[in-house]
Amino acid sequence: MEKKEYQSEEEFLKNYDSSQFEKLSLTTDTLIFSVADEETGNYRKLPEKKFSVLLVKRDSYPFKDKWCLPGGFMRMEETIDEAAKRILKVETNLQDIYMEQLYTFGELDRDPRMRIVSVSYIALVDKNRLKEHLSKNASWFQMDILEEEREIQVTFDNGNESFSITIEKKLKNPTSDRYEYIVKKNTHLAFDHAKVIVCGVERLKNKVGYTDIVFNMMPKYFTLGELQQVYEVILGKKLLDPAFRRMIQDKVEKTDKIKTGGGHRPSVLFQYKKK
Amino acid sequence: MEKKEYQSEEEFLKNYDSSQFEKLSLTTDTLIFSVADEETGNYRKLPEKKFSVLLVKRDSYPFKDKWCLPGGFMRMEETIDEAAKRILKVETNLQDIYMEQLYTFGELDRDPRMRIVSVSYIALVDKNRLKEHLSKNASWFQMDILEEEREIQVTFDNGNESFSITIEKKLKNPTSDRYEYIVKKNTHLAFDHAKVIVCGVERLKNKVGYTDIVFNMMPKYFTLGELQQVYEVILGKKLLDPAFRRMIQDKVEKTDKIKTGGGHRPSVLFQYKKK
DNA sequence: CTAATAGTGTCTATTAGACAGTATGTT
DNA sequence: AACATACTGTCTAATAGACACTATTAG
Predict the structure, then answer these.
(1) A135 with A222, same domain?
(2) What CATH number is associated with residue B43?
(3) Looking at chain B, which residue has its C-alpha nearest residue A73?
């Protein structure tokens, strides 16, 4: 290929041949998390909260009949963020929800069809939107996360079907907080989505500590008890009431609404307060 | 396009036409940060530390003669991480250094030639490697960062040339820590690299607080004074000695080596201690 | 001796963890 | 009345911020 000398940027661009570099397809995959209520038999008890993720059943090859994250191919006329939003709407009917970029996965063999790089996103919705009309292949799965030493086990359950994955975490570098995720067991999830889910769960756990993103999973009005449950479910541990209330005191404001009917003392409803 | 029914995954893959989706080029761009010594006239004083980034002068269109981050096109037979490493070696002769993925930029107009998505990386090297033989277009720039309210100004200086950029930070969402970066002033940097640099600088500032990545910018043996200077330069503020020493006490271990010759009390040399 | 960094002791203010107690609905 | 959650007071432990002091070299 002969190198030509151009006199200006305009001239260069007019003559530019964009076919000279190898090209590939780019997809977005989105982790939609929510914290769902699960009714307990006891009329006094608050419904238990369950950390949930939305999965879609593949109806074609590759990975036919396996579960995967809602995702699809980016188009040339849209940004990556726009692609993620569009695809989410098409696949799940969800829109206007909190989204942020998680990580870009580019292993060679992550898709058996061809070389595909995937930009993953985290999306958060409040539990009321679990009931919105989803497209027919989408389903919410409750997750139970068991983390011990360097191994993470996640059990998924959508009421009908249940399965689990096991992932080993390995620090990429002793100085950093970046992990390599090694799939030890995975029978039901397509592509590298087992890794993506674990990566997203860990990121969410971390971010809950230093941002207000949990409020994207809350309805407009909520009690502090409910809010605390959501934190507890994401962090996977119980929190002490006074410490929790101190921590969130500047993030919320009291409303004049009250929630009654619980078989116990009524609770004041709060709402999110921006800083 | 007629939809065919396949009997198995193998059969499907054999018949798969990968040309049906639009494709694009993917590049990696790497922020290589270091903290350089700058000699002061005073024989007693420690050399001042300067936060530095490696830039490359473009020798062809587009953005001919502008500065940019070392980067290039990913190939089909390598992962994104591998591409970033390969390109770094070619463009700067640096290898075996700490690298981590930063963010994936995919605005429509970030490259005037065609649609290109770029996966950016952060790389860290210690000051001694500043002197390694760089390729002819590469140059280290000292950065002075001025952050006030929502505006960030960065001044770049490589000894020969000096310029500055101004970027406005805007929270994407009140609940999160993700910013949109709006370029207010930029005369010397190519593509969207002004944004990438600011994004990387902020990420580094944050990560310094909760990881040990600074040690990737340190030589094997260092004094606690030098280490403190590096933290101070990255964070952009002075730290109190006792607090600093408390903070790093479990991250370092004493050696039997001592640094003398400074016109003041000699200092014990330490090294990084993995957890 | 002096300027400069090296290194430590300690007081205080703030924050985090823990526990215990009171309050108030529904059935 | 009993249960379950709502909500608060307070003690203590741990941590962070601030200052002051001593130590030790080259010139």
Answers:
(1) no
(2) 3.90.79.10
(3) B21
Beta bridge partners of residue A212, listed in sequence order: none
Closest chain B CA to residue A21: B25
Residues B13-59: tens digit of each pLDDT: 677 666 666 788 999 999 999 999 998 889 999 999 999 999 999 99
**Whether B176 and A212 lie within 8 Å, measured CB to CB:** yes
CA of B126 to C1' of C5 (A): 22
Mean pLDDT of chain A: 93
For the stretch B102-151, pLDDT in tens is 999 999 999 988 999 999 999 999 988 888 888 889 999 999 999 988 99
Are A168 and A86 in the same domain? yes
With respect to residue A15, please indicate whether it lies within any of the assigned structural domains: no
Which amino acid does the sequence have at A193? H
Domain count of the fold of chain B: 2
User: Do residues A266 and A199 both lie within one domain?
Assistant: no
Contact assignment for B114 to A177 by CB distance below 8 Å: no
Alpha helices in chain A (DSSP H): 9-14, 80-92, 193-210, 224-235, 241-248
In terms of domains, do B64 and B42 share one? yes
C-alpha A266/C-alpha A169 separation (Å) is 43
Residue A11 domain-assigned (yes or no): no
Could you say which residues 30-89 of protein chain A have a Cβ atom less than 7 A away from any atom in strand D? 42, 44-46
Q: Which domain range does residue B146 map to? A: 25-207
Single out the residue in B207, B235, B253 at which a domain terminates.
B207
Tell me, yes or no, whether B165 and B30 share the same domain: yes
